[in-house]
Amino acid sequence: MRTITNRRATHEYYIEQKYEAGISLKGSEIKSIRAGKVNFRDSFARVKDGECWLMNFHISPWEKASYSNHDPERPRRLLLHKHEIRRMKTKVEEQGMTLIPLDIYINEQGRCKLTIAVAKGKKFYDKREALQKKDMAREKARALSNPEN
Q1: What pLDDT, in 10s, does the model give residues 41-92?
Q2: What separation in angstroms does the CA of 86 have from each of 52, 97, 112, 129, 135?
Q3: What pLDDT is stored for residue 114 in this prediction?
Q4: Taking a C-beta distance cutoff of 8 angstroms, is the pair 16, 10 a contact?
Q5: SS3 for 29?
Q6: What DSSP character marks residue 61?
Q7: What's the angle, vertex CA 100, arms to CA 77 and CA 59, rounded to 5?
Q8: What is the C-alpha separation between 106 and 86, in angstroms, rounded?
Q9: Do 21 and 104 touch, CB atoms closer than 8 A?
Q10: How far apart are CA 82 and CA 77, in angstroms?
Q11: pTM here?
Q12: Percentage of the chain lying above the pLDDT 90 cut
């Protein structure tokens, strides 16, 4: 099981809650995902008419497909329970949060799953503080692993 992760998500957002969703795909899209040809840049999810849609998620066209290849950034429907969609909608509308994709993977049954998160954006100083904490942890680990200094 290979997971493709949105590494910028944890840097840009505070993750409040995670949901696992199925994703409605075409044949050439699943083959591109298996090959790892996806890009999370500027992708987000939106609740519209009681359904959840993944927007701006780039899945590169599969090079061996026929003339009827898929549109790389078409909106894709996410498969969630109604109560999960309702919870997400209230958090987005009332608390000003956003829905972002965290990672995409193929499970044991061969189904493509997407982890989406209800998240709140970080301010610039929060990002800088997180980077400083990460650097301090790296320095500490380096000092503990190298006893001669």
Answers
A1: 999 999 999 999 999 999 988 877 667 677 788 999 999 999 999 999 999 9
A2: 10, 14, 23, 34, 39
A3: 95
A4: no
A5: helix
A6: P
A7: 55
A8: 26
A9: no
A10: 13
A11: 0.80
A12: 56
What are the structure tokens assigned to 7, written together? Answer: 């590494």
Residues 103, 32: contact at Cβ < 8 Å?
A: no
For 118, the enclosing helix (H) or strand (E) is: strand 112-121
Domain boundaries, the chain: 3-122
- Please check whether residue 9 is in contact with residue 102, taking contact to mean a CB–CB distance below 8 angstroms: yes
- Is 100 exposed, middle or buried (CB count within 10 Å of its CB: 0-12, 13-18, 19+)? buried
pLDDT at residue number 101: 96
Token couple for 90: 């209230």
Residue 149 has pLDDT above 60, yes or no: no
Predicted confidence at residue 64, as pLDDT, reads 75
In this structure, is the dihedral angle defined by the CA atoms of residues 17, 23, 29 and 33, taken in order, positive or negative? positive
Q: Which pair of structure tokens corresponds to residue 96? A: 């000003």
Indicate the CATH number of 3-122 among 2.40.280.10, 3.40.30.10, 3.40.50.300, 1.10.10.60: 2.40.280.10
